[in-house]
Amino acid sequence: MNLILLTASLFLASAYSNNGNIPPTANAGGDSRVSTNDFIQLDGTGSREPDGIISRYHWVQISGNPVEIVNQGAAITGLNKVQKGTYTFRLTVMDDKGGVSSDDVKLTVE
């Protein structure tokens, strides 16, 4: 019984930051395959913040040929100068209490 209570206490303590904030959960969307003829965009609107608001979105390119991220600070943004290849992008979200979370998405352009 003591072991179960200790484990639950550790889990709950790690889910909250020092200020009682529950951090957001970034969601960069699912990995996908698209064509160079498609209008290509990144969508982070699946991100969630259980005890406040998401105050900041930030997209960066992790891998692949360099592309232009139209608005790095938007929940949904377009991509320009995309060529055939595989790309990885990272979405980082911050909530109104300073909690941070990141998620990556892989995009294959054919």
Helices, strands, pairings?
Elements: H1 2-15, E1 32-34, E2 41-43, E3 54-63, E4 68-69, E5 76-80, E6 85-95, E7 100-109
Parallel strand pairs: 1-7
Antiparallel strand pairs: 2-5, 3-6, 4-5, 6-7
Structure description:
This protein has 110 residues and is mostly beta strands. The protein has a single domain, classed as Immunoglobulins (Immunoglobulin-like, Sandwich), CATH 2.60.40.10. Helix content is 13%, strand content 40%. The chain is built from 1 helix and 7 strands; from the N terminus they run H-E-E-E-E-E-E-E. It has a 4-stranded mixed β-sheet, with no helix packed on it. The chain has a 3-stranded antiparallel β-sheet with strand order 2-5-4, with no helix packed on it. The chain is elongated. The N and C termini lie far apart (55 Å). The model is unreliable at 1-16 (pLDDT under 50).
Estimated helix fraction = 10-25%
Round the Cα radius of gyration to an integer and report it.
17 Å
SS elements, strand count: 7
Strand arrangement across the biggest beta sheet = 1-7-6-3
**Cα end-to-end separation:** 55 Å
Secondary-structure-derived class: mainly beta
CATH architecture: Sandwich
Principal-axes shape call: elongated
CATH T-level topology: Immunoglobulin-like
Runs with pLDDT <50, length 5+? 1-16
Mean pLDDT: 87
In CATH terms, the superfamily is Immunoglobulins
